[in-house]
Amino acid sequence: MNRKHENAELGIDNGEYAVRRSRFSLVIAAVVCLLLAVVAWLMVMNAKDTKNLPLEVVGEQPGYTYVLSDAELEVSGAVVFLKAADRIEVIVPEQATAPGTYVIALEDLVLPEGVSLSELTGITLTVSEK
After folding, report:
1. Of 129, 126, 130, which is closest to residue 66 (Cα–Cα)?
2. What is the pLDDT of residue 62?
3. CA distances from 112 to 5, 26, 56, 89, 90 (A)
4. Which of 24, 56, 62, 108 is 20 to 30 A from residue 11's alpha carbon, by CA?
5. How far is CA 46 from CA 4, 33, 84, 85, 114, in A?
6. Are 35 and 57 in contact (CB under 8 A)?
7. Residue 29's pLDDT is what?
8. pTM score, whole prediction
9. How would you class 76 by CB atoms within 10 Å of its CB: exposed for 0-12, middle for 13-18, buried for 19 or more?
């Protein structure tokens, strides 16, 4: 029995593989899939995470060597901001004009946008003559 010719007098194609869909339903399905992908991407990029960022001394005076007690700090924030962050700048304190060891305050750290320190640690800056 040939199913394609059963309803030949009605002009209906009854084949097993004859599937007809409107283009409108395909466009709606594509838009829904795209919206779901955007929502999933936004959820992943706004999730909270942590990352270790290296410390970089800024404002060094010539003739002195500056050594930090830590090489990196752990920061937390949204994934989108952590991907953009590459370092934490440490501004040399104004009182660090002579050789010695100085405590770095939170105000001396320049954190990238959207991130914060995971924990406060006592960072020291050792200044010595070259």
Report:
1. 126
2. 86
3. 71, 44, 12, 9, 12
4. 24
5. 54, 20, 13, 15, 11
6. no
7. 92
8. 0.65
9. middle
The helix/strand count (H/E) of the chain reads as: 2, 8
Using CB atoms within 10 Å of the CB of residue 93, give its burial: 0 to 12 exposed, 13 to 18 middle, 19+ buried: middle
Tell me how far CA of residue 10 lies from CA of 5, 6, 7, 126, in angstroms: 10, 9, 5, 93
Q: Is 64 helix (H, G, I), strand (E, B) or coil?
A: strand
Please tell me the predicted confidence (pLDDT) of residue 33. 96
CA distances, 117 to each of 49, 51, 83, 114 (Å)? 12, 10, 15, 11
Report, in angstroms and rounded to the nearest whole number, the Rg of the chain calculated over CA atoms: 31
Q: Which residues of the chain have pLDDT under 50?
A: none
What integer pLDDT is reported at residue 80 of this predicted model?
87
